[in-house]
Design a protein that fits this description.
This protein is of the alpha+beta class and 384 residues long. The protein is 14% helix and 32% strand. It is built from 6 helices and 18 strands. The strands form 4 sheets. Strands 3-4-5-7-6 form a 5-stranded mixed β-barrel. The radius of gyration is 50 Å and the shape is elongated.
Length: 384
C-alpha cells in the first residue's frame, strides 16, 4: 500500500474509492491476483544515495519508539533509526521515551547509510557540540579541579565536572601509601574534593582523575631517607596473621613478617605487638619497584650491640640511625677501651716524710771467709 509506515488501511482509503493499482502476481490455480498500490510510485530508496549524505543534518518526525531507539520518518518510505546510545553525550538514556515522544519533529544527523539493507543511522546528540571535546580543551592533563562526589563504588568515586560529565577517581589513585578497602571509608556522596586530571579519552568518553597525584610520591625519596641496616622507630598501625605493619613516617610503611618479630617462634603476631605501639626495628630489605620495605625485630634481639643502640635511641627519642653510624660508634667504643687501658696513670705510693719515716740501715757486709791454703804435692826431684 505504501512505501512508508501505515497502521491501518483506513489511513489511505475509504470504501468506494476508485484507485489505480499494479498487478504484482496472478495465481491461476487459486484464482488470486496480488495487487500493489505503492508500486505505481517510484521506490524512494532508489534516490536515497543522491539525497542523503553522512554528516548531513536532516529533519523528521518520530514515528516509533522501542527499547533500543527511535524511528524517524524523513520522507514517505524513508525512515532512520536513532539508537539509544546516540541520543545524549552525557546522560545514560534508559529508554527513548525519556527524551522523545511520538509525533515530535526533530533535527538529526546522518551517521551511516546502507541502501542494500535499506537502513539509515541517525544521531541526535551530534546536533550539539561534543562536551567531551570541550572539557578536553578546558582541562588539560595536570589541571587541578574541584568537584562534588556524585557516586561511590567499590572501585572508585565519580566526581561531577562541567557539561554534565563525571570524572572517575580510581581507588588506586586515592593514596600513594594508604591501604583502602572501599572509598566510602574516606569519602561520602556530596563531598567536595580536589583532584588532578590524569587523562581524557573523548572517543571512549572516559575522564580519569587522581587525588594522590596532588602530592609528591613519597617513594621517590625513599632511597634518600632509608637504607638497609638502618635502625628506625615506627608505630604499629596494623596487625595481621602474617605480621605487623609499621608506619615509618611520611606515608611510608614497612612490614615485620611474623618470622622477624622475635628470635623465638611466634604463633600470633598480636602477642608481640599491638596497634599504637612505638617500636625500634631494623630495615632488612627495600624494594622500590614493588614499593615494599621489610623490617625486623629479631635482628635487634640477636645482635647485642644493635639492641643496646636501639634501646638508647628509643630513650633519647632518636628517630633512626644508619648502619654506618652503628659501625662507627662500635669502633669508637672499642678504641676508647684500648686507649683507656694504655693511658691510665699508674698510681705511685706516697713518699714518706723524712722525720716520721725511720731510717733503714743498709745490711752489713760480712768479710769473706779465708780458706786454708791447699797443699800441693811435691814435684819430682824434691824431697818431701
Amino acid at each position: 500500500m505504501s512505501w512508508g509506515r501505515i497502521n491501518h488501511p483506513s489511513e489511505l482509503f475509504e470504501v468506494g474509492d476508485e484507485i489505480k493499482v499494479m498487478v504484482l502476481k496472478y495465481d491461476e490455480e487459486r484464482q488470486r491476483v496480488s495487487l500493489g498500490y505503492k508500486q505505481i510510485q517510484p521506490d524512494p530508496w532508489d534516490q536515497v544515495g543522491a539525497k542523503y549524505t553522512v554528516n548531513q543534518r536532516v529533519r523528521g518526525k518520530v514515528v516509533s519508539l522501542t527499547d533500543y531507539g527511535a524511528f524517524v520518518e524523513l520522507e514517505d518510505g524513508i525512515e532512520g533509526l536513532i539508537h539509544v546510545s546516540e541520543m545524549s553525550w552525557v546522560k545514560k538514556v534508559k529508554h527513548p521515551s525519556k527524551i522523545l515522544a511520538i509525533g515530535d519533529v526533530i533535527e538529526t544527523v546522518v551517521l551511516d547509510i546502507n541502501t542494500e539493507a535499506r537502513r539509515i543511522s541517525l544521531g541526535l546528540k551530534q546536533t550539539a557540540a561534543n562536551p567531551w571535546e570541550i572539557v578536553k580543551q578546558k582541562y588539560p592533563v595536570g589541571t587541578h579541579i574541584l568537584g562534588k562526589i556524585r557516586n561511590i563504588t567499590d572501585f572508585g568515586i565519580f566526581v561531577g565536572i562541567d557539561e554534565g560529565i563525571d570524572g572517575l577517581i580510581h581507588i588506586s589513585d586515592i593514596s600513594w601509601t594508604q591501604r583502602i578497602k572501599h572509598p566510602a571509608e574516606l569519602f561520602k556522596k556530596g563531598q567536595e574534593v580536589e583532584a588532578v586530571v590524569l587523562n581524557i579519552d573523548s572517543e571512549n568518553e572516559r575522564f580519569s582523575l587522581g587525588i594522590k597525584q596532588i602530592l609528591e610520591d613519597p617513594w621517590k625519596t625513599v632511597s634518600n631517607k632509608f637504607h638497609m641496616g638502618d635502625i628506625v622507630e615506627g608505630e604499629v598501625n596494623n596487625v595481621t596473621e602474617f605480621g605487623a605493619f609499621v608506619d615509618l613516617g611520611d606515608g611510608i610503611e614497612g612490614l615485620i613478617h611474623v618470622s622477624e618479630l622475635s628470635s623465638k617462634k611466634v604463633e600470633d603476631p598480636a602477642s608481640q605487638v599491638k596497634v599504637g605501639d612505638k617500636i625500634m626495628v631494623e630495615i632488612i630489605k627495600i624494594d622500590e619497584r614493588e614499593r615494599k620495605i621489610r623490617l625486623s625485630r629479631r635482628s635487634l634481639e640477636e645482635g647485642s650491640t644493635k639492641a643496646d643502640l636501639a634501646s638508647f635511641m628509643q630513650k633519647q627519642g632518636s628517630g633512626k640511625v644508619h648502619i654506618g653510624d652503628l659501625i662507627q660508634r662500635a669502633q669508637e667504643k672499642g678504641k676508647g677501651k684500648e686507649e683507656g687501658e694504655e693511658e691510665a696513670p699508674v698510681e705511685e705510693p706516697p713518699i714518706p716524710e723524712a722525720e716520721s719515716a725511720p731510717k733503714e740501715e743498709p745490711p752489713k757486709e760480712e768479710p769473706p771467709k779465708e780458706e786454708p791454703p791447699k797443699e800441693e804435692p811435691p814435684k819430682e826431684g824434691e824431697e818431701a
